[in-house]
Each structure stands twice: as structure tokens, then as C-alpha cells.
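Inputs:
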Amino acid sequence: MNADVEELVAGDPDAGRLVAALRRSPQAHVAAGFSARVMAEVRAQRRRAWLSAPTVFAAAASLVALLAVASIFSRPMPKPSLAAWVEPPLTVRLAPYDPADWYSPLACEEAPREAGCAAEPFCTREALAMLRLR
Amino acid sequence: MNEASDAELMAQAAKGSEIAFAELVRRYQDVLLNFFLRSAVSFVDGQDLAQRTFLRLWRYRKRYKAGRAKFTTFLFMLARQESIDFFRVESRRRAQEEEIQRLAAVAAPAQGSAGPSGEAVRRAMGRLTPTLRDAVELVVFQDMPYAEAGAVLGVPLGTVKSRIFNALKRLKELLGHERGC
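Outputs:
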């Protein structure tokens, strides 16, 4: 009995008897398995805490950061070669002169036309030349 | 493990030790059950509230600072919050229960001179106002000094003292009436 309660009951025998009677009154006990149920719930709470929104967000952010870092390191690096550091020599390539280049007919148009003309019985050398010049 | 103080067990529980926490549950399960039963709740509700208090204790285990308060002060603060939440939700149902208990008290047989039964004490406690009941619960049943009870209830020491005085007076009437005095 703490000092405050002792002081309370010291001057009042009735209060003392009442306090003693209250303290003597039978106490109830929890049912069997109570603490096991509490601990099971504690474990469940722990699991739920792992899956809480902040945890999931943190995990997702970590994953994104990890992927970003991985993508930087997995990029193919250019192979070092001497050619990359040496300027190519300046050369001029002259194409052979061809007057047909002036007209620049598309080969895919010209060839069928020429082939078509050659198949005709009236196709002459002049007609073919005209086709080439068109 | 059994020799460890409550504060030591709480420190271990704060680091995640379920074994330490289970020991605290075993130590205080009956204490909390009786705390709630004296608030005139049913046995099932009392167990439920005790369980919820332990879960609240687990959630807030890192907030407990051994140097600032005794473990029991912290535990009963949580229990009281749980009780307040419960009665806020269950206020209507409780009114009905009180009426049933009042009727049962009238019909209950007279007790012998050995002292009030556990049920009679619970009934009498249930008929006190919540403020008086909390004061008796902490000071008389949990043997807390006035200052500590005041810390749990959030009232000055003098208020606890006067509540105890009034509560004992009322309990004397209620239990005397039950015994047919």
C-alpha cells in the first residue's frame, strides 16, 4: 500500500475497511490462449506495417533508382580505335562525266521504258536515244 | 527473462523483441482485464479491450521513455485512451447494459460478511462516474500514488485526492446497499 493510501485510510477506519475489501475482491483471469492471440495479432500488425504505403513507396523509389544506375553502367561503350582519333585524308573523288547525269532520269523509270521500247518491232536506235535523253 | 523489470522489457520490445513483449503481456493481462471489467464492460469486451491496449502498447513501444514515467503509468494511459474510445462508440449500448446491471443488482442475493464479491465490486464500480471510477481504479486497485494517478488522468494531485474521497464515500453507499445494510 503506497503512502498516499495509507494516509487516506489512517484517519478513517471505514475507508480502510472498504479499501481492504475492494482489494480482496476476487480478480478475473483472462481465458486460456489470450497472450498467444495477442502475440499473433502483434505479428500480423508487424506484417501489415511492412506493406504500408510509405514502405511500398520507399521500395518502389529504391527500385527506380537502382534501374537508373544500372542503365548507366550497362550502356555499350565505344571501342577505342586509332581511326576515331585521326582525321580522314581529304580526297576528292570525281565521278566520270556522263551527259545523261544532267537529266538524272531515275533508273527504275528509265529501264522499264527502254525494255518496253526494245520489245517493240518499230523500236529504233533513235527512239532509244530519245528515251534516254527524256 | 522473469527477473527483468518492466522498463527493461519495454526497451527490448522497442528494439523488436517479441519475447520481451510477450512477457509484459503475461504480466499485465489480468491486471488490464480487471481494470476494464470494473468499468462495467462484459468479460468478452474486457478481454477485447485488454488485447487492443496491448496492441496499442506495441504500436507506441518506441515512445516510452523509462526515465520519464513508470511503465504502469504509460500502460494505464493507453488503457484509459482505449476505454474512452470504446465508451464513445458504445455509449448507447452501455446505457442499456447499465440498466440491466441495475436490475440484476436489485435481484442479487445478499452477500455474507466476508466482503463484497468480485461481481458486486464490479457492479458498484460500474455505477460510479467515469472520473471517480478511474481514480479508484488507479489509486486503490493499482496502488498508484496520487501524483502518478494524476499523470495518467491529466489532473492535479489535489483533484485525484478529492475524487478518491468522493468515490470511496459513494462505493460505501453502493456496497452497503447491496449487502442490505
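Remarks. Chain A touches chain B through 30 residues (CB under 8 Å). DSSP finds eight helices and no strands in chain A.
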